[in-house]
Amino acid sequence: MVANPERRTALVDAGVEVLAREGARGLTFRAVDAQAGVPAGTASNYFGGRDDLLRQIDSRLRIRLAPDPAVVAELLTRPRDRSLIAAFMHDLMARATGDRTGWLALLEMRLEATRRPELLASSTASVRGDLVEGMEFQRAARLPGGDETVAVLYLAMLGLILEHLTLPGVLDGVLPGVSVPDGLVDRIVATIVPETAEEQVEERTQE
């Protein structure tokens, strides 16, 4: 296979576009070549097959959708309270809406994983790893809430992103006076996350 990292990345990004627009069944080398604007047969020189292309799309999406380290570093200079977690969630939502194609491709990858055992195994491991990493980050950064907070917040934000990117009309006006998606992000955080770590300790003491 050809060793040209820039061309390979461009082809993988073209694959992301095709996957988001056409779904997994439309992800062919011919479609990737057309999306990338390269001669027919180019993609077949870079990938060992469709499974190889899917694996590389999965790896590429993890890079495209990851938080900016500089943004994370800046946020961590703020007080460790609920507003900081809200800021992280707003950053997550901004990245999801800023790369809508990437997120739709990620959702298509999840659907495809239900049909491919090897992709299901790798996707399960990577997503579970991200969730565990989030719990570890929560503890290391001394943010309010614990593992349960992170798990429920993950589920709520995933649901919000899914609806907002696919069926935005479902959420429009669902809570009068609450904007979509930013107002809903604030409501999710306020409902799930304690105000401070100290408040969390007090609540546990009273139980």
UniProtKB/TrEMBL annotation:
Coiled coil location: none
UniProt keyword Ligase, yes or no: no
Metal-binding as UniProt keyword: no
Transmembrane portions of the chain: none
UniProt cross-references to InterPro entries, sorted A to Z: Homeodomain-like_sf (IPR009057), HTH_TetR (IPR001647), TetR_C_31 (IPR041583)
Superkingdom, natural source: Bacteria
Start-end of DNA-binding region: 28-47
Keywords: DNA-binding
Location of the HTH tetR-type domain: 5-65
Protein name (record): TetR/AcrR family transcriptional regulator
Source species of the chain: Streptomyces incanus
Phylogenetic lineage: Bacteria, Bacillati, Actinomycetota, Actinomycetes, Kitasatosporales
